[in-house]
Fold this protein.
Amino acid sequence: MLTLALGKRRSGPASRDPGTVLRDVFGFERFRGHQEEIVGHVLAGGDALVLMPTGGGKSLCYQVPALCLEGLTVVVSPLIALMQDQVQALTQAGVRAAALNSSLPPDEQRATERAMAEGMLDLLYVAPERLAAPGFLDRLERCRLALFAIDEAHCVSQWGHDFRPDYLQLAILHERFPQVPRLALTATADGPTRNDIIQRLALEEGRVFVSGFDRPNIRYRIGLKNNPRRQLLAFIQAEHKGEAGIVYCLSRAKVEEIAAWLKEQGVEALPYHAGLPPEQRARNQERFLREDGLVMVATIAFGMGIDKPDVRFVAHLDLPKSLEAYYQETGRAGRDGLPSNAWMVYGLEDVTKLKGLIARSEADDRQRQLDHRKLDSMLGYCETTRCRREVLLGYFGETYEGPCGSCDTCLEPVATFDGTEHAQKLLSAIYRTGQRFGAGHVIDVLRGQASDRAVELGHDRLSVFGVGRELSGAGWRSVLRQLVTLGLVTVDTEGFGALHLGEGVRAVLRGERRVALRHDPEPRPKAARRAARQAPPPVLDGATQGLFDVLKAWRRDLAREQGVPPYVIFHDTTLLAAASERPGDMDALAHLPGMGRVKLERYGPALLRTLREAGC
């Protein structure tokens, strides 16, 4: 029985040419980046860890070998939504693919298991829990296996941002099927996480392929919170009206509040978080995938593995816990390579909240220290005056020769100034008031605001009372936020937010250490904010845009008939190419990106007819 499980030898030849598979099945003329090298390595029987940005074509690295090799490729995936997306897209391309997960009725599960046993599948998607279920590995031993692909491989690492204990059992694949190649793939992993993946999956003898992490089509923008709801609405209305997007919030309550408020403002928005009934979560996700122009407001429970290519923006109303999480979440925008936005607003309350979550977590000291370092890196990215792309890619070990010219710090350079005197005043005020009060009271004292509380406590007679009248309340909050980021001030996360002096304060107060601060712009009046909004320049001329809209409507109708998301029929990039090039026959259609042989046969005549009816 084990001989059958091994199937081909690791060095066995492929039965199909990978270039032909890429062209005929997936509709692409050539591989990108490291794809061809990775595919060749897998076809030669090698193991590998692949780090490739979202939208960079990770899936093709195992899908192409799966169709070149004899036998079954098993893909381990953490989410049902990802499996459904991949299977639907592969089925549209004529590939024999299926999934086994808890959402399937028993008769469908049995049918899939029969197809697996009879050699009728090329790819099978399973969750890690399914892989470890009693008897499943025994069933695999009776199959001819070609490849194991472990997607979202960062889930195996406790140092990663999305650790999942079920992934720890995947090392058994190497023990039970030592002759079957294994390919681990992820879009996000820093150095320690990569090493952990290699160790836990026993990939020490495999190769590591690291593609560039840059997503050049994404514009990164970060601002300070100043009525964040209105800031979000202004951003959507000015730049993404009627387009699909994701808004991330930290709490379930906030998700529901923001989704309801956006809907009141005329933005079609849906909530998604783990506390919703499963039926509602599934329904909302299905709508987001299948309808155009919906905005999903969600906790981080939403999105991993979502294959929707036309998400035009990802917005954060709360600070992510790490740059890995930020990179992966923002990476859900613009998977089709078209221009997209990563937009975020944050404030001191975000820093306090996340530091409190770390302090109260049940993790051991080592993990808490790591979480603090990751949060510090996230804060450093927010506060940087350098090119954001340069800082973000540098975190993942990639040298980027900035400036990029397309992030906010490149387009609107941030001024810095010597803030040592401001820091000394604020630190002194915290000390003189006893390190027992929050930001509001300390800033009132600095600005000479004789509140009832200040008078009652005698703080209006302190030497620091009124020494900071040169800054507004917002200005002092900016200084405070940056001193917290620098570790010079800490915030009591257990009580009422009392400010305490941090490490290194003595050197600042003595003037032995200078403190450089960024100059945050004062909040602009509403009229000025409105005048500053500019709609993005049109990408297409009027005729091409009109034809593109016609083709999207045609695709939407097809998708409704088949009960699948529109993008599994054709991505926007395919329809954009058709609208721009206006092909007149099947040969011309065959050269459109994403137009594989099966899709050409299935949809080509109707697409040509739609183009002719539109006047092409």
